[in-house]
Each structure stands twice: as C-alpha cells, then as structure tokens.
Amino acid sequence: MAVLVGKKAPQFNAQAVVNGREFVTDFSLNQFIGNKHVVLFFYPKDFTFVCPTELHAFQEKLDEFKSRNTEVIAVSTDTEQSHFGWLQMEKNHGGIKGITYPLVADTNKTISKNYDVLAGDYFYDENDMLQAEGELIAYRGLFLIDKEGIVRHQIVNDLPLGRNVDEALRMVDALQFVEENGEVCPANWNKGKTGMQATHEGVAEFLEKHVN
C-alpha cells in the first residue's frame, strides 16, 4: 500500500454526478487546488450496505466541512449512471437520495489505482490470458488534501469496516490549526484545545500540564 502523505495528490478528470442530479463530464480535482481543502474518500460499490451509511454520514456533516472551506468528494468504480440511479433511491430502501456532494465515476479504475486503494489486480495466466484476482473495487480509502494539493492524511479501511466521519472532520480541524497557528497537535487533540510548540521545551510543558 502506497503512502501518499507528503506527496502531490494524483490528479484526475472523470465523469461525476453533482448536486444529486447533474452529470459532469470532466470533473477535476485540480479545480480546488489553491482554494479549498479536500476530503476525498473512496467506497466499494453502489447499492450495497455499509456504503450508504457512510455517504449519509458525510452528508449530515457536510455543512461543517463547508464551514471549514473543505470540499467532500466520493469516488467508486461504478459508472455515473449507477451513481445517478442510486441517488434516486430513498433512504428507507437503502438508497442515497439527498446526497449533494460529488460522486465520481472511476469506471476505468485508474483513480483507485493511482491512490493505491484498488482491491484486486490484473495478471496474465500461463496461457498469456488476462485475468483478475479479487474484485476490482475500491477499499475505503480517505485522503485529506491541502490547498497546495498535498496529501496530509490518509486512512484505508478494509471493505466491511465503516469510517468515522467525526474523525475526518477532526483531522481537517487539526490541519487547519497547524496551518494557522504554526503549532502541532498532540494526541487526542480536538478543536478548541491548545496545541504545543514542536520543541523539547514545548512537549515538556504540555506533558506537565496535561498528562498525569
């Protein structure tokens, strides 16, 4: 699994559905560089089970992300037509009607591959025939990208393990705190708590005050 933290986020142009109903033929991550932070998350499949709980959880917190000038973008290897169909399905039937942030269609699986979250892979067998090992779908990867297009945080869950959206929001707060204050965030930091100076004196003072 590649570690992208500290590196430029892989760029892409792809089909997407935005605002729950509009098809975009050339959706680009690059449009947010220099302007917004981005939470880019991958999910395995439309019309599944854990996935709608995650997508709705991000929607419930969407205003909080937006108040932090942060764009939320979801990606799976389904088509844009599949995304659109799922967006028409009511929540009480397992659908994602009401989701307004972009759903990107990684139909060619290149985005998932470039972020190294693609489960399964291609190989050639003894007859030189192309085969696939495992389902070519995305793990539950999440990447926090700063305004310069640099990945500052990543986490990848296996398929049955849903993510904590509050933790994603906490990481946005932590990154923005570091950017604005020049201090670092100690363990279990939350918005409103103090940071500390990245010096021996700073950590000693913090431990003296906050650790029993």
UniProtKB/TrEMBL annotation:
It is found in: Cytoplasm. One of its GO terms (biological process) is cellular response to stress. The keyword Transmembrane does not apply. Keywords: Cytoplasm, Disulfide bond, Oxidoreductase, Peroxidase, Redox-active center. The active site is at C51 (cysteine sulfenic acid (-soh) intermediate). GO terms for cellular component: cytosol. GO terms for molecular function: thioredoxin peroxidase activity. It comes from the Bacteria. Residues 3-177 form the Thioredoxin domain. Pfam families: 1-cysPrx_C, AhpC-TSA. PROSITE patterns: THIOREDOXIN_2. Gene3D superfamilies: Glutaredoxin. InterPro entries: AhpC/TSA (IPR000866), Peroxiredoxin (IPR050217), Peroxiredoxin_AhpC-typ (IPR024706), Peroxiredoxin_C (IPR019479), Thioredoxin-like_sf (IPR036249), Thioredoxin_domain (IPR013766). The keyword Cytoplasm applies. Belongs to the peroxiredoxin family. AhpC/Prx1 subfamily. Thiol-specific peroxidase that catalyzes the reduction of hydrogen peroxide and organic hydroperoxides to water and alcohols, respectively. Plays a role in cell protection against oxidative stress by detoxifying peroxides. This is Thioredoxin peroxidase. It comes from Winogradskyella jejuensis.
